[in-house]
Amino acid sequence: MAGTQLPNETLHAIFENLSASSLAAIVRTSHHFRLIAERILYTSIVISESLPRNSDDPASVHAAICASTILARPHLAEVVRKLSIRWHTDPGARDEYLPTVTPVLALLNRTLRTLQHLEQLELALGLVGVPLDARAVLDGCPLPALRGFALSGLGRGTLSPKLHAAPSTSVAISSFLSCTPAVSHMRLLDCYEALELPADALSALHDFRGSAIAAASVLPGRPVSLLGLVGHEFITERDLQRIASGSVPIRWLDLSMMSVTPILLRDISRHLTAVEVMKVKLALRHTLHHALSGISLLAGLSSVLGAFTALHQLDLSPTSVDGVGRGNALEESALCTTWARACPALRHVVFPSRTEWRRDSENADVWVPAAGATAAGVDPERDAHPRVRKRALWRGGGEAREGCTSRRVRGRG
């Protein structure tokens, strides 16, 4: 075959631009091509699959097949830079998944111990409430190159401790993070416990997403400038004080994964005074004057927004349109003007209707609809300073098509 006469560097450059399905086909054509193509395939592994119940056959789970393949071919471990696993489970009691996942997690744990060059690890396991300890997958896995870590679907989550005896995940997570010095992005969506970390751990962390309880234990003394909170509408004063005690101010605040009352927003503003970009899902029921209705409810936010003296981008698109109604252009423009009086730094607003407004560059008293009229909203990562944005491209989570990929890689024995 003429292609086999090309230098490996040339073949690698060609293969890098091919789809996963094309690479999978190339792997089967020759031993020479396989050695090059599989190194590209296994660089980024993304697995999204539905878990079978009551199955003790790991071969029925793509993640197990992929892990077995890496263990059988140790040279592949050197090239894996990203491993993302998302398991889809049925709602309700999930204990029936234990026979399926127990041997698979053991395989994944063995595999993780070999991935010394791994940079991104995303585990969304869908097993909240199942009596599983995070040690099952994280124990003994020092990952010195890891920069992005996301874990959800283990432990108790938001379930009542009186009804669910799922083991604590905080000890296992704390132990794991103590051995991952390079982590800069972290997402712990189901950890509602404080982590106990050495003072010198996570010294590079600048992006954290998780519960207020977890954030209050992680942020003190660390350079976190981008914070996303999940969970309840109430955050204690003590937790807010600790969240605000990082080594740098929080400038990007994402509150789109929790319902936020104006009262909570007011409490947050007392502590996080340097926020420049904020994304909020408002919970307006029973919080503002009963005589107000529709989009006029939002007028009551002026006094709250005025406390964010550095705020220049406000995104309310996660807020339900049903809760405030859909305003017309005149109402939205008037609200922008009102808010700007209270918050002079404000330059960019996205309403629950997803209509985007920007302050006119020539006349600060005039607000104009952004190009396209509606937009995807403000993304704290997308709109960050270029240096921060480059480091913030990774974010845990995100949906993938069901199956196993690396670029979408399917484990091959």
Describe this structure in words.
There is one protein chain. This protein has three domains: 1-41; 43-205, no CATH class; 215-385, Leucine-rich repeat, LRR (right-handed beta-alpha superhelix), CATH 3.80.10. The chain is 28% helix and 19% strand. The protein contains 14 helices and 14 strands. The protein has helices at 8-15, 20-27, 31-41, 62-72, 98-112, 135-138, 170-177, 212-218, 237-243, 262-271, 302-305, 321-324, 329-342, 386-391; strands at 44-50, 82-88, 120-124, 148-152, 185-188, 207-211, 226-231, 252-260, 277-282, 313-315, 348-350, 355-359, 367-374, 403-406. Strands 13-12-11-10-9-8-7-6-5-4-3-2-1-14 form a 14-stranded mixed β-sheet. α1 (8-15) packs across α3 (31-41), α4 runs parallel beside α5 (98-112) and α8 (212-218) crosses α9. The longest helix has 15 residues, at 98-112. The model is unreliable at 286-293, 384-405 and 408-413 (pLDDT under 50).
CATH architectural grouping of the largest domain: Alpha-Beta Horseshoe
Major β-sheet annotation: 14 strands, mixed
Tally of discrete structural domains = 3
Shape: globular
How much of the polypeptide forms β-strand, as a percent range? 15-25%
Q: So what's the CATH class of the largest domain? A: Alpha Beta
Sequence stretches where pLDDT stays below 50 over 5 or more residues: 286-293, 384-405, 408-413
If you compute it from the alpha carbons, what radius of gyration comes out, rounded to the nearest whole angstrom?
Answer: 24 Å
Separation, N- and C-terminal Cα atoms: 26 Å
Number of helices: 14
What do we call the CATH topology of the largest domain? Answer: Leucine-rich repeat, LRR (right-handed beta-alpha superhelix)
Helix percentage: 25-40%
Mean pLDDT rating:
83
- Topology, number of strands: 14
Secondary structural class: alpha/beta
Strand order of the largest sheet: 13-12-11-10-9-8-7-6-5-4-3-2-1-14
Pfam families: F-box-like
InterPro entries: F-box-like_dom_sf, F-box_dom, LRR_dom_sf
Protein name: F-box domain-containing protein
Domain F-box: 1-45
